[in-house]
Structure formats: structure tokens, C-alpha cells
Design a protein that fits this description.
Elements lengths: L2 E13 L2 E6 L5 E5 L6 H13 L19 E9 L2 E10 L2 E6 L7 H5 L4 E4 L5 H4 L3 H14 L3 H22 L6 H37 L6 E6 L6 H10 L1 H7 L10 E6 L2 E2 H4 L2 H23 L1 E2 L1 E5 L1 H4 L2 H14 L3 E5 L15 E7 L2 E5 L1
Helix pairs in contact: 4-6, 4-10, 5-6, 6-7, 6-10
Length: 367
């Protein structure tokens, strides 16, 4: 059996509408119920934040801090196999303090991959229905586990791309400082392209299996990774040099991994425009379960799975199928719902499920 990761205790303070909360979850299925606006999603977000140092529903972290508070803090005790570690993240404007067993990790990516967490929430339908950025982010999450240096390559690429754009706009296509910025873009961009290609290969292989399990129809799924750049440094740099005038005119680089696309199709037609809403939801959930499988293989552990109000997004049969899949994977699961009876677990033993209820950001009961 593969090693498991599980939260033993979570302590959140001044996080969203949670003033202070201590959660001691069960090792398998944890169902968190409550009316809308009571903090269910915020609790899942706190679990994700202490594991990944970021939010799954906002790019900016300022919104995580409770109004009037100087900072927000989340601490967790986490068991991996037979070992227990302490992780904590505190955020105040302009400052993010990250500690692993009381010490600052050498790299943020090292911390962010210690406790793999995969989340599915209603906004994830945009993985299918919206533009390519969400799918690129998904590939980057998988790539971080498949090729840990990919995170540094992405940050380096973005910084170099901004510097090249500034040089173009300030001094034109013949600026002498363009070449070093383009060389940096090419080096970081080629590494990122290679990592994303590998991540896409593994994600697509898992996606075909996940979609086949969840889809009740005979529709045909198509998925293809289309690179916007190149994995060859020399070719990458040459393309940037040739496109300077065009990029100045368009005010954006026309070549590079920021233009990557993971194309999804149903019966040969683009899923974004032609799939039904139900098909898009199933495809989005299939992508998340594929992410779970890829991280499991790369990290050799069972990731924690967060399901935010899945019962409202899927019909009862597919909701039950989701639980059957995650139960067989041996992941620790946290599921939110407005009505716990809408998350059916007929095959679960009473000891494998723990129920909690949230009211105004506070727990009022639990198993």
C-alpha cells in the first residue's frame, strides 16, 4: 500500500470569516456541512493554504486576512507514513512566513510539495469553459511534482519576459539589452516547455481513464497539448529576436510557454464551446482526478482530496462514483455540502466518516 498523508490537526486564526478554529479530522472521509456563507469553503481553503502557501480561489492573498486583523495564520500537524511534521503559513501585507517543523525551508517549492493537496470546487468548471490560463496552471501544478525545478523556471521566465517587454517599449527593437533578456527567456522558457510537455503527457493519459469512469455516455474525449514555445534554447532565442517588431506592436510576446494550450474536445468539437454544462462539469472533475493520479505517482503518496460542494455540481450517481473512486485511492477526503445527506456514502462504514458542522466560521459539532 502507498504511503498516506493526512491532516491530524488544523488551527486557523483570522482567516476569511474564521476568527479561530481547531479541526481534528478523521483519517478518511470528513464531511463539513453548513448553510451558505458559514465558512465551509474557507475551511478547505485554509487546508490548501497551509499545504501549498496559496489560495485555490484567488491569486492575491490579501483577501484571506480577516478584516481588521494584522495577519492570518494557519498551522497544521500532518502525518506522512509514520512521521508527523508541523507546517505553518502566516500572511500579512507584503510578508509571507512559511515554516516547516519550525524552520524556514530552503525553497518555497520544497515546502509546497511536501503535503500534496488536490481540490475540486465549483469554479473549476472554468478549466473547461474558460481560456487557457487555468489549464496552464493545472499543468504547472502537475509539473511541480514531475519536475520540481519547473516552478523556478516559470518564475524566471515571467521576470525575463517583463524585462524584455519594458526594454522593447522604452528603447525599441534594436535595444542592446534585449539580447540578454531574450537569452534568459529562452533558457527558462525551454525548461518550462519541457516540464509542461511531460506533465501534459502524464495528465492526458490519466484523463482518458478518469473521464471513462465518470462519463455515463459514449462521447469521445480528445485532449492535446499544443506548445506555444520550444524546448530548444537556441530556437527559442531566435524566435524572440525575429519577433521583436511584432511583439512591440502587440505589446506581448508572441512566442513562449505563456501561450501553451491544453486543448480539450468532445466528439471532435472544442469542449469549451460545444460541450454541454454537464459534460463540462464531468470533464473538469476528470481533470482534477487526473491531477490526483499524476501527483500520487510522482510523489509516491496518497494526496489529500478537497471536494467543495460537489453534490451541487454533479448528479447523485456521479457524486457516488466520485466517492467510490477516492475511497479506493485511500486518500483523506474533506467534502463540503449544505446538506450532508446529499453526499451519499452507502458503502462507507460508520467509523470511516466524520461529520462536522460550521456556523459563522466556528465548528458546532463533529464526530
Amino acid at each position: 500500500m502507498m504511503a498516506r498523508i493526512e491532516f491530524i490537526e488544523l488551527h486557523a486564526r483570522w482567516f476569511r470569516n474564521i476568527s479561530e478554529l481547531v479541526l481534528r479530522p478523521g483519517p478518511q472521509l470528513n464531511v463539513i456541512s453548513g448553510d451558505n456563507g458559514q465558512g465551509k469553503t474557507s475551511l478547505l481553503e485554509a487546508l490548501y493554504f497551509v499545504a501549498a502557501t496559496r489560495s485555490f480561489r484567488a491569486e492575491r492573498l490579501d483577501g484571506l486576512r480577516q478584516r481588521g486583523a494584522e495577519q492570518c495564520v494557519v498551522r497544521a500537524s500532518i502525518r506522512e507514513a509514520e512521521h508527523i511534521r508541523q507546517q505553518s503559513v502566516a500572511w500579512a501585507p507584503g510578508v509571507r512566513a512559511v515554516l516547516l517543523d519550525g524552520k524556514k525551508p530552503e525553497r518555497l517549492s520544497t515546502y509546497a510539495t511536501r503535503t500534496p493537496v488536490v481540490v475540486f470546487h465549483p469554479g473549476d468548471i472554468e478549466l473547461v469553459s474558460a481560456g487557457a490560463q487555468g489549464r496552464r496552471t493545472l499543468l504547472d501544478r502537475v509539473a511541480l511534482y514531475v519536475e520540481p525545478t519547473s516552478g523556478e523556471a516559470r518564475l524566471g521566465y515571467v521576470r525575463a519576459m517583463r524585462e524584455r517587454r519594458a526594454a522593447l517599449e522604452a528603447r525599441g527593437p534594436e535595444a542592446r539589452d534585449l539580447e540578454p533578456f531574450e537569452q534568459l527567456m529562452a533558457e527558462h522558457g525551454a525548461r518550462l516547455a519541457q516540464s509542461r510537455a511531460l506533465a501534459a503527457e502524464r495528465l492526458i493519459a490519466e484523463l482518458e481513464k478518469s473521464f471513462a469512469r465518470l462519463s455515463s455516455s459514449t462521447v469521445e474525449l480528445g485532449a492535446r497539448y499544443r506548445a506555444g514555445g520550444s524546448g530548444d534554447v537556441q530556437s527559442f532565442a531566435e524566435q524572440l529576436r525575429l519577433r521583436r517588431t511584432r511583439d512591440l506592436r502587440q505589446r506581448v510576446a508572441s512566442f513562449g510557454p505563456h501561450r501553451d494550450e491544453l486543448e480539450l474536445a468532445i466528439d471532435g468539437l472544442a469542449a469549451r464551446q460545444h460541450a454541454s454544462q454537464g459534460q463540462q462539469r464531468v470533464l473538469a472533475l476528470s481533470l482534477k482526478l487526473s491531477e490526483l493520479a499524476c501527483i500520487r505517482e510522482a510523489r509516491a503518496v496518497e494526496p489529500v482530496l478537497l471536494l467543495d460542494d460537489v453534490s451541487s455540481e454533479l448528479d447523485p450517481a456521479r457524486t457516488g462514483a466520485v466517492y467510490d473512486l477516492v475511497r479506493s485511492s485511500d486518500s483523506q477526503v474533506f467534502a463540503t455540502t449544505t446538506r450532508p445527506e446529499l453526499f451519499p456514502t452507502p458503502v462507507a462504514s460508520p467509523l470511516s466518516r466524520v461529520d462536522f458542522r460550521l456556523v459563522s466560521g466556528a465548528l458546532v459539532g463533529g464526530g
